[in-house]
TrEMBL record:
Compartment(s): Membrane
Protein's UniProt name: Major facilitator superfamily (MFS) profile domain-containing protein
Record Pfam families: Sugar_tr (PF00083)
Lineage of origin: Eukaryota, Sar, Stramenopiles, Ochrophyta, Bacillariophyta
Biased composition (Basic and acidic residues): 197-213
Region (Disordered) residue spans: 1-28, 190-224, 309-343
Assigned GO CC terms: membrane
Keyword terms of this UniProt record: Membrane, Transmembrane, Transmembrane helix
Amino acid sequence: MNPPPHEEDDHVQDEHVLPLPDPNDHDHESATISSLLRLALSNPDQQTAMLSNYSTSYNAVNVGIVLPVLKYSLSTSAHPQTTKVPLVQRILDVDEQSDEQDSIVASSLLAGMIFGQMLGGYLGDALGRRNAMMMVMGLQIGASLGGAFISTDDTRGLGTLEQLAIWRFVLGIGAGGVYPLAAVMSAENSGNASNQTHDRNAASRSSRQHEYEPASANEGLQSDEYEADENAVNEEISSFQRVALTFSMQGLGFITVPLLSYPMLAMQWNIDLIWRLLLGLGAVPGLFVMYLRLFRRYSSNELEDANAAEKVHKRSEGGSLELTQPTDDDEVNNSNDEGKSSFQSTVSTLFSDIVDGDPSVHVSDDHQMALVDESHLDVDDRYEGFNDCADGFNLRYNNESDPSPSAEQKQSLWSAIQQEQNLVGKFIGTAGTWFLFDVLFYGNTLFEPVVLEAAFGSKDDIEDGYTLLLLAVRDSLMISLLSLPGYFMTVVLIGRRTCVCGSLRTHGSSRCNSIFSPCTQTPACIQMQGFVAMFILYLIIGLYWTSLENIQWLLLVLYAGSFFFANYGPNSTTFLLPSVTYLKECRSTLNGLSAAAGKLGALVGASAFEPAADRWGESSVMITCAIVSLFGFILTRVCVGHQSRH
């Protein structure tokens, strides 16, 4: 079959296949980024997702600095105003029991996150995204404040680190619950009615490319259909960008911890106050989320309602179609809450969607249930499948056997999971790759001290424990800065067409088209190229470990490169893929299960790599990381597929 008539202009024809902005058009590019930022700054749902992910990342990593500061504080408890101690009190000279307690604190967070990811995912489908988010953020707020006020007096039966481990477990439940909810809220949240199109992905595009038989009588219809496809692609890319923007807050959360702690230590604040502040400040983003819910309840769904009504009005011009205006739920709630106490009113506001109906979980309006409810579309516009290279992520619907359910016919969670097409292949793609990546990501962090020592020199000759604290925070800041660009590179490039030769867009370069084959930066493509880059970097580090120790700058560049391509790669895409893969009724649950698989990988990496390094050496472990990266690439290629042809 031939494509629609634009054969004389390769540029125009390519725009139909992949209507992406030309990177040479800086005005268009800046407009796209600015519109994304405007959405983030004006839409409470997107703000909630971003703030919650920022809170999660901050609370997850702050213990890396809190623990050494806390142990330093305990070692100087006899002299609380003293900031400098002799060599014998250095915080790095800890006994075996202290190491075990540190491990318990770290493991308690991971265990809580695994449970929280599954629980938060389920609650997102059962109660609604916003209600579930308020619950898990409430846990984060409580656990952050609880950890900040633990007692350093062991006479109560629990040691200081044991108390901290308990609060970290509770914090892990709240932090884990954010993973599926933040991703799904961003994917489903759009500033216009075309939100319904992002759930269809590239289905109609890929099928129509091969089905159109151009005829002069049908050119107008084909043009309209391709224009609809262009809007679908743009909304799909916008969805990817929103989720990537939400995930990029993780990088800001990571860097916030050393940015806060270094000035405190440099100004020699009370050491006990520092670690309590670092823990307690983890509640601040959650309080802002509560503020958004209490005082800014008007979400993007109102804008979607208005745009959807306008779209239907335009399509029915000249007709007699009547539109029922949506009820102002906020006014109804306010009138019903007049007789309630302040506390009851606050709780009712926070969790009002349980009573009023959360658009993110109920199937009440066409524009809110794009994956299932397609009754507002013409029959010819309903799609048959998500055409994927590996056929691993196909979402197939049949107009006769799979009628669009009404609000009264909405499926149960288990029914939705059972009706998910190719569930096993999809879940292996989202959960399996997440598991493999977290094995690398968390296991690889064990070697940060080795790399930093090789890059900045040994600290063995430093006899001041407080100076060691400052250097540890400096190292943490350095790693955060090196890995930060990868997060935002994903936001900028996802959905765009790139070439390994360096150009962002290639239309006229025959050399690039014939030799290098330009690649569209789909999530699958970004994930595969990230795994490949990590494979190469880990292999080089592993094979030339001894030589690289003498070339400090090169070792640091290679190690920083591995973090860059992790963040501009599977770290971002494993977070994104589950939110755009599954049916809306079970999307949050399966997203949570995929995230939990990732944390299991983190537990495996953190538990296995250190003993392996002690037995076989660091170079062997880095080579193992390279092999795991290769498996991640293969699994992505087989189960997720390369969608660059779209």
